[in-house]
Amino acid sequence: MSIREKIYKKVGDDISNGKLVPGERLLESKLVKEFRCSQSPVREALRQLETEGLLTFEKNKGCTIRKLSIQEIDDIFSIIAQLESCAARQCTERATGADVPYLRNLHDKLRSAAKKQDLAKWLQINTEYHNFFAERATNKTLCEILENLKRRVYQYRHITIRIARHLDQYLKHHEGMLKGYEAMDGKKVEKYMKLHIETLRDVLISYLSPESNIK
Question: CA 124, CA 117: separation in Å to the nearest integer?
């Protein structure tokens, strides 16, 4: 892996994991020092992240973690809901039943994480749960588009689970997907996946709205 690739991965991961938050300034000099390199690979990596919508460059201000508007969040989550629910249906239509124990195990782990309020564990297992459907849809182009869109809003995942009362609701959505997959009912899985992501969108928008009183 080249220096540019290492910088790209490190900064991208830090944004996704919430270590770098929207609006935070990112100093090129700090990255140059951290990776012991020239400015060239740093700038190349940051420009690539800019094209992916994760960073923004402003005159006299430098580079900052891009803060999405409520409209952008609405748009991105709405597209993800359509694409990921489609992938879930495709996955289920190709199901043989052999993966049911694996998916049920993930669901049980999510239930345990919710009960313990282990949000880090929830995020980890939740990613595996969603990837299960996307990867088994066997549509590489769809997976690539989904990953790019989800990467743009990954840093907001922490908000959607921070409001604890919604975890039970998310579990019900996941259980609906699981039951649909067990029955090889692609339309049912599609329905619950779409409902789930649209709910995440609505929770996030409600939280970020200026008039919100739940922060």
Answer: 13
| Assigned domain for 213 exists | no
Q: How far apart are alpha carbons 54 and 170 in whole angstroms?
A: 26
Query: CA quadruple 57, 58, 60, 65: dihedral positive or negative?
Result: negative
Angstrom distance (rounded) from CA 63 to CA 61:
7
Q: Are residues 46 and 136 in the same domain?
A: no
In a domain, 156, yes or no: yes
pTM of the model: 0.84
Contact, 85 vs 199, CB < 8 A?
no
Question: For position 33, which CATH number holds?
Answer: 1.10.10.10
Q: Per-residue pLDDT tens, the chain, 215 aa: give them.
A: 899 999 999 998 888 777 888 888 999 999 999 999 999 999 999 999 999 888 998 877 789 998 899 999 999 999 999 999 999 999 999 998 899 999 999 999 999 999 998 988 998 999 999 999 998 988 889 988 998 898 888 888 877 887 657 899 999 999 999 999 999 999 999 999 999 999 999 999 998 887 655 54
Which domain, by its residues, includes 74? Answer: 70-208
